[in-house]
Amino acid sequence: MQDGSKAYIHFIMDNFSRTILGWKASLEWNAKNTVSNLKEVCEKFNLFHKPIRLLCDDGSENQGAVNGFLDQSNLFIEKLIAQVDISYSNSMIEAVNKKMKYEFLFPKNPVSFEEVIETLKDAVPEYNSRPSGVLFGFSPDQVLNGDIPDKHRFVEKIKEAAAKRPKINKQGLCDPCSDHSAISKKK
């Protein structure tokens, strides 16, 4: 923020759809915000009694109160620490963190914590509704709601566009370019 203070932002994301399910921003870095975010996501998506794997790093914000919350006998959430319990990293959520910072927060250069909150209120739904190449043109929300990414989804349209491209590229050439004899040929 412009005054030099820091806002700590915590996202919970579905690994398959890449949808941001919940987020919290705070002026403090602690596990209480993580627990609050987890509770809200579990309530919103009715996840309290479903078996879930929670992938996180081993930061302090993911310990203490988080472990206490997850240890409840009525929860079926298995906490997995990236590169400790499993071999891969949590780079997917780190990419979302980076996207939020560089596409939404840094360009806006928020003056206050309230402005950070307002920016995220707009940024998260935009991120969730934006088509993604990784999801083969579907948005995270579409995949969360049942659409299945299919790498063959646009194959025919891509072939059609590739076939049309040479003709389109030749239209509207400037005068020197329209004289093909004036265009140097590679030797």
Give a written overview of the molecule:
This is Integrase core domain protein. One of its GO terms (molecular function) is nucleic acid binding. This protein is α+β, with helices and mostly antiparallel strands and 187 residues long. It has one domain: 2-Layer Sandwich (Nucleotidyltransferase, domain 5). α3 crosses α4. The longest helix is centred in the middle third of the chain and has 18 residues.
Q: Which descriptor suits the 3D outline?
A: elongated
Q: Characterize the main sheet.
A: 2 strands, antiparallel
Number of helices: 7
Q: How would you write the strand order of the largest sheet?
A: 1-2
Class by helix and strand content? alpha+beta
C-alpha Rg, in Å?
23 Å
Q: How many strand segments?
A: 4
Q: What is the name of the CATH class?
A: Alpha Beta
How many domains would you count in the coordinates? Answer: 1
What are the low-pLDDT stretches, counting only 5+ consecutive residues below 50?
none
Straight-line N-to-C gap: 55 Å
Helix content: 40-55%
The CATH homologous superfamily is termed: Ribonuclease H-like superfamily/Ribonuclease H
- The mean pLDDT is 90
Topology pattern, helix = H, strand = E: EEHEHEHHHHH
Strand content bin: 5-15%
CATH topology heading: Nucleotidyltransferase, domain 5
CATH architecture: 2-Layer Sandwich
